[in-house]
Amino acid sequence: MGKVNLSYLRELEVIELNSGVRLGKVEDLIIDTEMHKVVSILVSKPKGLFKINDCLEVPWNKIKRIGSDVIIIDGVEYIEKAIT
């Protein structure tokens, strides 16, 4: 996969590689404007019954693959943050 835009990424579910846990969907990107590169993705945590939607910041280097319908990350440390 070559170039993608934010609209495309926002449709993708983020899944942790080792556990298969769904962390949420891409909400936004953090960009370093001096280095001209994406630093991280913001992943919206699933909304619970009484929870507001907040985000996990996942560094770009944790992304292992961007597929046609999911983004795979290597980051078991984000699982607990996603479900709490």
Automatic annotation (TrEMBL):
Gene3D superfamilies tied to this protein: PRC-barrel domain
Domain of life: Bacteria
UniProt domain PRC-barrel: residue ranges: 2-76
Coiled coil regions, renumbered to chain: none
PANTHER family with a match to the protein in the record: SPORULATION PROTEIN YLMC-RELATED
Name of the featured protein: PRC-barrel domain-containing protein
Protein's organism: Clostridium bornimense
